[in-house]
Design a protein that fits this description.
3 helices, alpha+beta, globular, 23% helix, 10 strands
Length: 158
């Protein structure tokens, strides 16, 4: 019991840093649908490093500026190659769900997703214990991988 209490109290003082990136190949629409889920407070701290204006994702003073900064940050820290070709996901927007910010992107013209290469450093500029978890769906298969800081690169084949 004492050991459990010590472990629980340490967890309060040393929070975990994790993001989840889902990539779903939509064959019918010929798109790769991407969602990036990050704890809102961590994302705000990171975006604040690159902005002179106050960053508030929940009640932004300038929603257009926040959208621009979020789009720029994710595109600078998440690089994808689909079937060997670099792609630049189109930013669709974001929403707040509980304690997380969900940012949505899409890559069009993807009729077939055979191979996905990932270079990801999301939140590596905030915390050196950051973990980025990937869930990728294509051709009826689900694959997952966990990138622990400082590892940035992984790949998926279908």
């Amino acid at each position: 019991m004492v050991q459990w209490l010590i472990t629980a109290s340490l967890a309060l003082f040393h929070p975990f840093f994790v993001s989840v990136i889902d990539i779903n190949h939509n064959e019918k629409e010929a798109t790769a649908e991407i969602s990036v889920r990050i704890f809102t407070d961590d994302l705000e701290k990171t975006l604040q490093k690159y902005s002179k204006a106050k960053i508030d994702l929940i009640q932004p003073a300038n929603k257009e500026l926040v959208n621009q900064q979020l789009n720029t940050y994710i595109n600078n820290t998440l690089h994808l190659k689909i079937n060997g070709m670099p792609v630049k996901p189109q930013y669709l927007g974001y929403e707040i769900i509980k304690e997380s910010t969900w940012a949505y992107f899409e890559v069009s013209g993807i009729k077939d997703l055979k191979k996905l290469d990932v270079d990801c450093s999301v939140l590596y500029d905030l915390e050196n214990t950051q973990i980025n978890i990937f869930h990728v769906k294509s051709k009826g298969q689900d694959k997952s991988y966990k990138l622990d800081y400082p590892k940035r690169v992984t790949g998926f084949e279908f």
